[in-house]
Amino acid sequence: MADVINLRLARKARNRSKAAQQATENRALHGRPAAERQRQQAEAERAARQLDAHQRDKP
Prior knowledge:
- The protein has 59 residues and is mainly alpha-helical.
- The chain has one domain.
- It is 75% helix and 0% strand.
- It has helices spanning 7-30, 34-53.
- The longest helix is centred in the first third of the chain and has 24 residues, at 7-30.
- It is elongated, with a radius of gyration of 22 Å.
């Protein structure tokens, strides 16, 4: 026979795990020095420019 599951507790546990995952992502994103954020943004912009420069047909 199947185990009885309290849906309220399961929903709360699911929400807690989602909140913990979001907190981890936010710590990784916002817990960096300004110089590192600027460097990563500059690298992303450079990669985008390089990709655009190698397109065959311009839109």
